[in-house]
Design a protein that fits this description.
Layout (H helix, E strand, L loop, with lengths): L1 H65 L2 H17 L4 H11 L12 H13 L10 H7 L9
Length: 151
């Protein structure tokens, strides 16, 4: 009799074990399906972003075709000539120094320690009198870097 009870108990444990395995398998399958759905959503978002990027590239290419080098040169020359007639603003000095590779600070339109150091380094590199101030000679050379990045 004890043997029958032991066999019956073993059979019950075995059946319960099988039920648990089936439940765990279903949960894993549901998790996998959920992850597959997330991947599908991300892939569709990626595809839409790629299409958006391509359309922006096309628009940029069309815009660049409209802008001829001669027209761009006229705009740049007019801007530089206008700058040469007046005293440079601090922000313009910082931009020109940054484009020339002599300023690593933020463009904040304030003459500070970094701006003065940048001016001095520029003056030294261009064999000018090192004063830390943007005089006419310094600005004459520095303004060429206002619209182009060299370094």
């Amino acid at each position: 009799m004890a043997r029958k009870i032991a066999v019956l108990a073993s059979l019950v444990v075995f059946v319960i074990g099988l039920t648990g395995c089936a439940t765990a398998r279903k949960q894993k399958e549901l998790e996998i399906q959920g992850l597959k759905n997330q991947v599908s959503v991300l892939e569709s978002q990626l595809q839409s972003r790629d299409e958006e990027i391509n359309s922006l590239r096309d628009a940029l290419a069309k815009q660049q075709e409209k802008e001829t080098p001669e027209a761009l040169a006229r705009v740049s020359k007019k801007s530089v000539i206008a700058e040469a007639k007046s005293r440079p603003k601090t922000k313009q000095v910082q931009i020109a120094l940054k484009n020339a590779g002599f300023y690593a600070g933020s463009i904040d339109a304030k003459i500070g320690r970094l701006t003065r150091a940048g001016i001095k380094a520029f003056q030294k590199a261009n064999n000018l009198t090192v004063t830390g101030k943007t005089d006419r000679q310094t600005w004459a050379l520095l303004k060429e870097n206002l619209y182009k990045k060299e370094k």
